[in-house]
Design brief:
Structural class: alpha/beta
Distance between the termini: 65 Å
Order of helices and strands: EEEHEEHEHHHEHEHEEHHEEH
Number of strands: 12
Number of helices: 10
CATH class of the largest domain: Alpha Beta
Length: 274
Amino acid sequence: MSAISTETLSLGYGETVIIDELDVAIPKGEITVLIGSNGCGKSTLLRSLARLMKPRGGSVLLEGKAIAKLPTKEVARELAILPQSPSAPEGLTVHQLVKQGRYPYQSWLKQWSKEDEDAVAKALKATKLEEMADRPVDSLSGGQRQRAWIAMTLAQDTDIILLDEPTTYLDMTHQIEILDLLFELNEKEKRTIVMVLHDLNLACRYAHYLVAIKDKQIYAEGRPEEVITCELVQQVFAMNCQVTQDPLFGTPLCIPHGRGRCIVQEAALTARLS
């Protein structure tokens, strides 16, 4: 059974249809990455999977159950979502932020417990933020701040984690740091992770499964080595490229065509003139 799926799902804003009768099944216990050009509906689809957006038609199924009919706290105990560029109130500490992830487990009858504290401590340890627990979130670097938000989703202790462009605005070092963390969570705890990523090469490196969206529908889906071809990149992103194999990971490596300084041509010209 898939972790989460859609049946003839349609989404939109106002008169604009963004997703039209889309069927997709997210593999359980794997990392799935949604790819596509800007405005194709990746983030909109992700929001609908988390029940943050009401469908115009069709349905979202969580472990085979219609998510629209499930109690809010039950959904929050099954899946967590980290939106793009989240913000925290000024002065909120890392520890206070991560504690918010335990909200779905609180009630009038069940207040803060040792189980909640243990979940927060585990999330801080997993994201290597133990020594920064008392620091304000707004005092952290971009990578540290993103780790704090991921720690909050980990404290929520869900089997499914949805992330909308978790590496946005981060430099290369912090991008790899965040993606390595998510990869380890999947590898060690078999969490189902669904991400929106713009970098095709990183998507291929970290994803078990890719879903390419174009014209309100799924253009292609499957393992990165099955999905990423020159034709797909041209059709989905309107970009010509060469697809080769990553020399370190063996995953597809997309080399876009375009203008720029070509050292191969420069070397050839130098050889002719010498």
